Structures are given as C-alpha cells and as structure tokens.
Amino acid sequence: MRPEILFPLFAETRSLPGVGPRIGKAIERLAGPRLVDLLWHLPNGVIDRRFSPQIANAPDKAIVTVAVEIDRHVLPSSRRVPYRVVCHDGTGALDLVFFNARREYLETVLPVGERRVVSGRVERWRDRLQMTHPDHIGRPGELDAFKRVEPVYPLTAGLTAKPLARMVAEAVGRAPELPEWNDSAWMARKSWPGWREAVRLAHAPQDQASLDPYHPARERLAYDELLANQLALALVRRRRRARPGRRIAGDGVLRRRARETLGFALTAAQEAAVAEIAADMAAPECMIRLLQGDVGSGKTVVAFLAMLAAVETGAQAALMAPTEVLARQHFATIEPLARAIDVPMSLLTGRERGGNRGRILAGLAGGATALAIGTHALQQNAVAFADLALAVIDEQHRFGVDQRVALAEKGRAVDMLVMTATPIPRTLTMTAYGDIDVSRLHEKPPGRHPVDTRVLPVDRLSEVIGRLRRAIDGGARIYWVCPVVEESETLDLAAATERHAALETLFGDRVGLLHGRMKGADKDAAMARFADGEIDILVATTVIEVGVDVAEASVVVVEHAERFGLAQLHQLRGRVGRGERASFCLLLYGGPLTETARARLNVMRETDDGFLIAEEDLRLRGSGELLGTRQSGLPEFRLADLALHAGLIEVARDDARLIVERDADLATPRGAALRTLLYLFERDAVVRTARSG
C-alpha cells in the first residue's frame, strides 16, 4: 500500500482550486492526472523580470518591469486595429497594446490618472515604444514582487502559462519532506540538496544555468528516477533467479549435425553467443538473456542452435515473432535445417485454421513437434506444449512484458532468450533490463557486402528513376519505401499507394505494393512475387523494416528519409546487401532540413555500424523515440536524460545491486526510505512483492 506521506502527491490535479474540467483535461494531456506528474514537469526556460529601467532607456525587444502613470485609452477605429493605452514614467512614453480587448476590463485594471506596474517585452514600432499584452499588470506596491525570475514550462493547446505555473506552484508547495534514500557519502560528494529542496529549486530557476541537466537539483532528481528504475529491476531479477530452474544440457548431437548442414562456419561473435547461451541453459537458474545483433549478423542461427539444445534433452522450444511476415521468414530459414536433421517443427499464425491447426496443436501438446515458430497465436489458451523448455522472443520491443511472459508460462521453469535486430545503446539496455546478461553479435557473416549509401534531394526524383531503370535492366530488384499508406492532409509525405501508381505508369506490372493494412495472404503474395522475380520494384511502408530477406534485392530507396529515425533507416538499409550483387541505399529528403535531420543523414552516409548508429540515435532523438515510436519494452523517463546521464545509470545500477545484496527485503531504515522512492516513481508491483522474494 502506498505510504501515507505520499498521499498528497497522488491527489488528482482536478482537485486543485481553480482547475475545472477543461483545464484539468489539458493538464492531464500535458503532464499527467496527479500532482506528482506536475512535479516531474520541469521548466525548460526562464524569464527574468528583474530588469527595471526607465522607459527612455528600455532596449528594444527586452523584457522589462516598469512603473507607469496611465494617460489615456485610445479606442480602435476598426476590429483590425488594436486597443492602445498610453502611459509614461517621466522619462518617456509607453503604449500598452491589446488585440480583441474588452474596454470595460481595461478601464478597470488600467484607470486613467493612476499608477500601475506592468511587465512584458517592449519593442519599437513607428518610433514609439510599446508593450503588447503585458504579462503582468499590478499596483505600485507590487513592483518588487514582479521583479523576479519566472520559470517557463512546456505548454499544450488549451492551457496558458499562468494557470499552469499556478498549478505547479501548488503541487510544489504540497511536496512533503521525505526520508533520505540516497547514500549520505554519495550525497555529500555530489553536493546534492534533499529531495524536497531539489524539487523546489528545479521549479525556481534563477538563470539559464539552473536549467542545466547537471545542476545539483536536476541531477539529484534524475538520479532518484534512475535509482528507482534500477532497484526495481534488481529486485525482479533477484526473485526470478530465486525461482527453481532446470538444467538444459543436451549431448550436442543435434547441434553438431546442424552445423554440418549449415555449409558455413559461424563468426567468432556467433560462437561466443552460442557458448554463453548454452552455459546459461545448463545452469540451475532460469535463463533470461538478450541477444543483440546488427542487421544480418546471424541471430537466427544462434537461436536455432539454442533451441536444439532444448530438443536434445527431450524438451521443446518455441520462437515468437511480432508479425506473420517475420514468422514465416524464420520458418523458411529454419525448417530446411530442422528437416535435414529429422527435427519436427511447425508454424502457427492466425492464418492456420481447421484441420491443419488441429494437427499443429496436437503435435505440440503431445510432444511429437519439437520446435514451434509463430506469432502471438502461440500465446492463445488453446496452445499447449508437452514440455516447453526454451522461449525465444524475436524483436522483443514489439511485445509488451505480459506478452513475453505469457509464452514462458506455457512450460515449467522456461529459459528465455529475447532478441533484437535493432542495436540498443548500452545505457538504454541497462535502463530496460538492469544488469541482464547480454550477448552481442558485432560481426557480419562472410559474404555480406557493404551497402553504398547516397543522400539526394527529392527534387532529383527523375534522375533516381533513370538510375533504377538501368539497375532493373541489369537484373536488380528494388525496395521503394514510403512513410505512410495514404496521402495525409497535414503532412507532405509521399504515400505508398500513390507512389505505386506513379511507378506503375513507368514500369508497368513489374511494380508491387506492400503495406501494413493489407491482409496477411495479400502481403505474402506480394513478397513471394518480389522474391520470385515476378516484380522488379516493391513499393512498401516500413512493414519491410525487420526480417524481410530477399537476397536478390540490391537497391532500397527511402523517400522522405528525413522523417525516419536513424535506427529505422539502418533497418531499412539492411534489407539489401544480402546477395552477391553490389547494393545501394538512396535516401531522398525534402528540404529544408533541420540540423537534427541533416546530422542523421550524415551518420547514415558515414557508417554502417549499427551499434554506433544506435548511440547517435539516442543522442539525436532521445530514448523515448529511439525506433521512431514509443516502445512497449523500454521505460519512459521524465527527469533523466539517458544520453546525458549515462554515468548516473552506472552508479544507480551498482547502488541497486549493493542494496539488494545487503537488504533484499528493504527492512532497514534506508530500505524503508527506498520503498517510498519506489512508490514515488510508481514501481508499486515490485514493492508489494519485495518481501516475498
């Protein structure tokens, strides 16, 4: 149960005075539904209102706070002309300008002949100094109160700065003193304030330096968030390792026969991964290992050998992929190898129905089928295994945590191998998995050729078409990738359907179309026609991003490449360079480019190292958008910046590991404070079960 000391912070923002349904909905959309969400909504700028010059000395474009006397109101001659209030301070005149103003209101707050204090940005217009819509209007006694530094917060539609700042100030005022959960020596070394003071300082910046992520207040809050994350992961990992596992150590016969069937030698990185996974499976604890492999690094073969280790013991193994296209791709790769060594396997997707589905389910339940490859269909209640020992989850970030666990629960003490073809930066790996065991495949198998990457403006489209015509005449097959399926009214993007129609007029029926809204059978048919050479150009959305493997494809064109993330571009480029033919990636961009987009395209042109690209993607885009969309498998951080606070992640991980070793039940005084921390950052499920192990 959440500690009582935190109750005020978890009250709804709509309970605050002055927050009605409209403003409440806007605040919820911007920051979240509770007061604690407002604490995490930090300012991203400051306005310094301490500058109080005489009007005659006020610089153009400056923010000033001045005391003035109201001379007269000048009513607008038409609706397009602003309302003006003329005033002075003895050294010069100032016009206060209002658009769509209410006369009664302005005559009340700015009465002629009286003195008032106004604060806002001044500018010169037709040789007169004016202030448009002053930010503050008050009485002379409020001058000193107005001369302060104000935080500037990110806003959303339907919410202005003043009510948001008022709500945040209310939330900060209700923040209680919390017991200190950080190590005292570490706090002293970093010169960090206590938690409540850190919150106050973070929302009361005095200058631009106060907004720096390394400012003591902000850095301390970022570390708190990272420590909560790492401690939760460490507690989960301890409980998982405490569960009884099973030793899976076969005699190696099937794996030796499979290697002989491959017809090529594994890379050193593959051999290392195979050995690490085999050692984990042979240990008494349940395995959970992440296999990271760049595009084309050979993860499927490593996973297949791990699955055979389970089969050698008389057990079963299953591989779950996020899409039917990818599941069928894996089946097409593994099934011939399994058949050659007499290991029965089946494919289960949502398309298998009737008698065929019944036979597949019977084979899995009875144990006659040793290996299963499928989609989410493997999780269905009707699917039962005789003895599932290993679950392989491919492109694990496409699945939620519950989905990943659901497959493992179909067996007893199931080992889990999660894979991704999208290299994840080390800092992000730590925040998503803690100190999970990771195997990385850095090398590409023999025969993989580098892809020549070119960056071109989209207005050179006719030149690109000419190149493609020559490439097709030479036997090339081409992917043409567009960001969306149908023309958007708000985004100037090339649509797959329209690009397909345009290319069809040039190349006839040698152009195919593939996108996510097509039925499964139609997708497979389009891919089959492309793989068999019936079509030369496959116009597609990012449905081809992961796993699609056509060795004859040697050119990929990405239209509006500036709209894609680096990791996504790298995945798309990985669809070519898989055969003997020299391969090309043409990145077409629409101008003008932002600095981030230009940097992204330059990285693609300069390197094909997926792990280096992933680090750059994290730096340029931030963790939340690493793959172009927010992911189910990766945590979202409000206070920590993973690209900037990498050193803090390391410390938090080590601190969490030490805490769990010394006080796994969080029973000491510091442990009690750490439970408060976990509840504060809503790791409630971990806290509730921490004492149970």
- Terminal-residue CA separation: 17 Å
Poorly predicted regions:
489-493, 623-633, 689-693
**CA-atom Rg in angstroms:** 31 Å
Count of alpha/pi helices: 24
Structural class estimated from helices and strands? alpha/beta
The average pLDDT is 87
Total DSSP E strands:
21
The portion of residues assigned to helices is 25-40%
The fraction of residues in strands falls at 15-25%
How would you describe the shape?
Answer: globular
**How are strands sequenced across the largest beta sheet?**
11-12-10-13-14-9-15
**Largest sheet properties:** 7 strands, parallel
Strand and helix map with partners:
Elements: H1 21-30, H2 35-40, E1 45-48, E2 63-74, E3 83-88, E4 93-98, H3 103-109, E5 115-125, E6 128-132, E7 136-138, H4 143-146, E8 149-152, H5 161-173, H6 184-190, H7 195-202, H8 216-242, H9 253-262, H10 268-282, E9 288-293, H11 299-312, E10 316-320, H12 324-340, E11 345-348, H13 354-366, E12 371-374, E13 388-393, H14 401-408, E14 415-420, H15 426-433, E15 437-441, E16 451-457, H16 461-473, E17 477-481, H17 496-507, E18 511-514, H18 520-531, E19 537-540, E20 553-559, H19 566-573, E21 583-589, H20 595-606, H21 610-621, H22 646-662, H23 669-680, H24 684-690
Parallel strand pairs: 4-6, 9-14, 9-15, 10-12, 10-13, 11-12, 13-14, 16-21, 17-19, 17-20, 18-19, 20-21
Antiparallel strand pairs: 1-8, 2-3, 2-5, 3-4, 5-6, 5-7
Helix pairs in contact: 7-8, 8-15, 8-22, 9-11, 10-11, 20-21
